[in-house]
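Q: Convert this sequence to structure tokens.
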Amino acid sequence: MPLSRSLTVAILGSALLIGGCDRQSGSAAQPQASTEAATKSLDGVIDRSHKGSQLPEFLLKDSAGKELRLSSLKGKPVLINLWATWCAPCVAELPALNRLAAKRSGDLRIVTVSQDLAQPEKVAAFLKDKAPLLEPWLDPNNDLTTFYETTTLPTSIFYDARGREVWRYVGPRYWDNDKAAALLAEPGQPA
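A:
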């Protein structure tokens, strides 16, 4: 491969890792990438344009057939995280989400929803190895990425205890630091 083509491929690959995983590629799954490179820039974009929207009526399942209706999660704040096993930035943020789950288990529900199209049955084992406190919910048809109008993984959506959206965060982040704590302390809409 000529040097200029190698450099172009390297630049495009770096852009993907910095910005998250783009779902518009059209392929069934993107190639595995290094999580080391993805952890160097865990930075994303906050979107508050849907503030006040209600939790959707989606029904999720895990590989064992257990069900979770998202609209039933009212009562305490909820962080919904759309991710995939093939997405290096998603995998890079899993340990921080796991630490957040340990720290905030009594007052924050973290719902991780895999967007893996191929072999969704492997998601539970993958999470058990990387982030054992996170629940392995599946969305094999990518209905939530369509609903949330996102083409980038990871995407996280924060709802207040009344089930109203506060913000969306597009891209990976360290969820167990002071900046994330400030985001998760933001109030929802007035009653």
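The two ends are 61 Å apart (CA to CA).
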